[in-house]
Backbone:
């Protein structure tokens, strides 16, 4: 919880006082410490008697599907029009690679994504909802600070502080959801409630405009954070 709250604040402070490039240098020592902890503290669960079969073809095809899609979504409307040959070509290439990826996964001995998992409706629903939830989470983390700085006129440190209430509310939502599930053994109504609160928060964020204040942004992000905090652990527990 401390790391989640401190991250946006430290990032904003570093950006304001040292420059945004220093964020990448800041990640290096933190990443090295994390790597050393993993290497020294994580137990080994490798079965020496079984030689793993790495799905190299699946990995290459997945990269071939994802990277052109990201390029198309990044360039469309800026570098090229949505109907330009370049963007349409990237979308077509993405679709072709995705089809080949599904074909390869159906024939791989140890596929990256076993298709049998999707025969379980709980797993399938959880994957779809988590995918959409991630769009909300990363969209908010990326675009709300930009809105606070570019439209409201706050500093990078101020935009980081705007994220803190949403992080705190997400932590509270996750703790409350975990307690409810552990005490009742039920998760369906909680999952529906979490998604509903998250959708309400995103809807409220659409009200923001040039006349909005930082206080409004904080309130709407806090509502969204509660929904995120409830939704993510609930669906993880459901799959488990």
Residues:
């Amino acid at each position: 919880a401390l790391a989640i709250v401190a991250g946006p604040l430290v990032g904003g402070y570093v950006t304001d006082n040292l420059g945004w490039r220093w964020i990448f240098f800041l990640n290096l020592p933190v990443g090295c410490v994390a790597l050393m902890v993993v290497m020294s503290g994580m137990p080994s669960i490798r079965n020496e008697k079984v030689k793993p079969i790495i799905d190299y073809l699946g990995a290459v095809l997945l990269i071939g599907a994802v990277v052109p899609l990201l390029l198309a979504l990044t360039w469309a409307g800026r570098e090229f029009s949505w109907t330009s040959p370049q963007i349409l070509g990237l979308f077509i290439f993405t679709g072709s690679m995705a089809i080949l990826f599904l074909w390869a996964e159906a024939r791989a001995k140890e596929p990256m994504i076993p298709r049998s998992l999707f025969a379980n409706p709980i797993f399938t629903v959880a994957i779809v909802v988590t995918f959409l939830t991630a769009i909300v989470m990363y969209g908010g983390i990326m675009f709300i600070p930009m809105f606070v700085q570019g439209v409201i006129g706050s500093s990078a440190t101020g935009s980081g502080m705007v994220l803190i209430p949403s992080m705190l509310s997400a932590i509270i939502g996750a703790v409350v959801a975990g307690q409810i599930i552990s005490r009742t053994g039920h998760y369906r109504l909680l999952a529906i409630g979490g998604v509903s609160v998250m959708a309400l928060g995103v809807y409220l964020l659409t009200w923001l405009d040039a006349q909005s204040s930082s206080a409004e942004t904080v309130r709407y992000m806090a509502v969204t954070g509660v929904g995120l905090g409830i939704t993510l652990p609930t669906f993880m527990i459901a799959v488990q």
